[in-house]
Design a protein that fits this description.
The structure is a single chain. The protein has about 260 residues and is an alpha+beta fold. It has a single domain (about 5-235), classed as Jelly Rolls, CATH 2.60.120.260. The chain has helices at about 45-55, 240-264, and strands at about 5-10, 15-20, 25-30, 60-65, 75-80, 90, 100-105, 125-130, 135-155, 165-170, 170-175, 200-205, 210-220, 225-235. The relative contact order is 0.20.
Length: about 260
């Protein structure tokens, strides 16, 4: 049975860790809701959840910050996650809903006047939610992925509930299922100021061999505009890479054995 542990860090914000066994998914979640349309939320709980996620990934973490794109650039976006080589493609949703790359000016303090801003460096990806089940936008990877996390800004201030669906070879293998069908935040209902300028981190690691090669972001209210930044992944090593590593380890063992024989 999937276990769930929640540690409250401040009123209205938490880190959520799920899955104490290897057969269950692991979730990381933290949010800060003390922002507004013109002021950024603090980065206390968001940063703590992201830090826990990065520690769990160790040296395998790769992050896309959207800094290499032109301001106003629209999908398809080729994402390299800092490697210099394309790893994924960010596409619009199936209804053609289009997002864009935005630059907030880089002062680290202001918003765009509507509660959206970058988490770290000036660039971020902004898109409008959808009301269907097909996705606000989607990311297709060139290889299997085991972990994915992101920072979300100004999410849910127009009552949209964001959820993530994970696919492999075109077949859904999992969906973020904490909360009422999506991430564990409560969207504003009639009072947008409750989540204006909010900041959150959501991270996910697949259970066992249940890896994925596509993520679809889904929403429930088309009036909501989201900002995304610092998307982080951990890839699954290709079989050839694993084989090379195994061969290298075996070769080192053989060299050590021969040296011991010669010294004996």
């Amino acid at each position: 049975m999937q276990s769930l542990r929640t540690t409250f860090l401040a009123a209205g914000a938490a880190i959520v860790l799920a899955a104490s066994s290897a057969s269950a998914q692991t979730y990381y979640y933290g949010e800060d809701v003390d922002g507004s349309a013109t002021t950024r939320a603090s980065n206390i709980n968001t940063a703590a959840a992201r830090s826990s996620f990065l520690v769990a990934l160790g040296g395998s973490a790769l992050t896309e910050e959207f800094e290499s794109f032109l301001v106003g650039q629209t999908p398809p976006l080729s994402l390299d996650f800092g490697t210099g080589n394309p790893i994924a493609t960010l596409l619009t949703g199936f209804d053609g809903n289009s997002g864009r790359v935005v630059n907030d000016g880089g002062d680290g303090l202001s918003t765009n006047g509507n509660g959206r801003y970058a988490n770290t460096n000036p660039a971020y990806y902004e898109t409008r939610s959808t009301t269907d089940d097909n996705s606000t936008f989607r990311i297709q990877f060139t290889q299997n992925i085991r972990s994915f996390g992101f920072v979300g800004i100004d999410i849910g201030d127009y009552n949209s509930q964001l959820s993530l669906a994970f696919y492999r070879d075109g077949v859904q293998v999992d969906v973020w299922s904490i909360g009422p069908g999506g991430l564990p935040y409560t969207p504003s209902d009639g009072d947008n100021s409750a989540r204006d300028g909010s900041r959150l981190f959501a991270g996910y690691t697949a259970a066992g061999s249940n890896v994925f090669d596509e993520i679809r972001f889904r929403g429930t209210d088309r009036d909501d505009v989201f900002a995304f930044d610092d998307m982080t992944i951990a890839v699954v090593p290709e079989p050839a890479t694993v084989g090379l590593l195994a061969t290298g380890v075996a070769a080192l063992g053989l060299v050590g054995y021969r040296r011991r024989r010669q010294q004996g």
